[in-house]
Design goal:
Blueprint lengths: L1 H17 L1 E5 L9 H13 L4 E5 L5 E5 L2 H10 L4 E4 H12 L6 E5 L5 E4 L10 H9 L4 E3 L1 H5 L8 E4 L12 H4 L3 H16 L5 H17 L3 E5 L1 H11 L8 H4 L51 E4 L8 H6 L6 E3 L8 E2 L8 E6 L4 E9 L2 E6 L25 H11 L11
Amino acid sequence: MSKLITSVLLLFFSVQIFASSILIPMDADSQKNHLKAYGITYWVLAKQQKVQWLLNYRGGSFLLPDGESIRKECQIRGVSFEIISDGQANGILDEISSPSVNQDAVILEKAPRIAVYSPKDKQPWDDAVTMALTYAEIPYTTIYDEEVLDDKLALYDWLHLHHEDFTGQYGKFYGAYRATPWYIEGKKNSEKLAKKLGFDKVSEEKRAVALKIRNYVIGGGFMFAMCSATDSFDIALAADGIDIVEPMFDGDASDPNYQASLDYGKTFAFTDFVLERSPLKYEFSSIDMTNKRGNVPKESDYFSLMEFSAKWDPVPTMLCQNHTSLVKGFMGQTTAFTRSEIKPTVLVLGENKINEEARYIHGIKGKGFFTFYGGHDPEDYQHRVGDPKTELELHPTSPGYRLILNNVLFPAARKKKQKT
């Protein structure tokens, strides 16, 4: 009997000695495919296994449970990983927990259900978030106005707003593209959809969609928006009940002196902005910095990520995880945000100090969160209508795309109270 007990104990301690974890490093030197690493992490979460996100440790690495299937999946997807003993893993966690280092471990518990707000018809441009999700092999559902107005947002944890115009001005493409087939067809389809949904004008229908999305966030949803979806969303909220649309868009005149009627208290991120009245200008308002970037040459167009306390402010720290603190700039219809028009309650996560512009901002609305990211495509400096899409196989370590995928995993985190 004593020999049997000894054998069992030896077996137990042998298992403990050789038990291991998988570390997916996210620093610049060790990881060959940062973007697909997020997909691996999501894949593990989808199998009801927990993951630890090691904030500020080797670029924001992931600590996964070990398993042959996970090892094989990393190999298939080309993701760099390291097998470490449980003793080594505990050593890392002890090191991270020290009050003297700006690091922390956040538990990711559940794969978020993801929705991408995008029109059903093909657009003459590509969406960076859709490309990032597809490349990282993270599943998502495409929804649009019908689903939003039918209260289907409650089915999802995370919502991305496609390159979109919530003001009903068809992206302000009128000046340059009003005679092109895609613009004419898109306008016709939008008007048809608005009437089907019971609205007289596209601007009214889009505002109703924006209000539904607002309620989704207030109720606890996570919203991520890029490019023109950022400022046009806030403009639609501020202009609730006001006609800011000129006749070539909706067939009737705008309200006189509509600028003075805007209610900035209804917006998420921006305040005191001035709308661009001219339908010929490819611009919505003074929020955007695209036309104020004369002193930002392409060669030196970078923005810096802010540093937050991982232990006290895990939310902004998660959203800023990267293998570099400097990210290449990139343009879009809405490239960056005017600092003076950002509400004081909103955190600036990334900025171009030279031009006094914010590129990446985050805030809380009710029980939910929102993140706005300026620019159209992090690996295409000046993406134009009709340009070919970016092939992410050529940019597997893109810092700009990493910021998108930080937001995708963010809802999976076990929340700690934010101090900022």
